[in-house]
Amino acid sequence: MIIRALFFGHYRDIVPSGELALSLPDSATIADAAAALATTDLRLADILSRTRVAIGADFATPETPLKDGDELAFLPPMSGG
Question: What pTM did the predictor assign?
Answer without folding.
Answer: 0.89
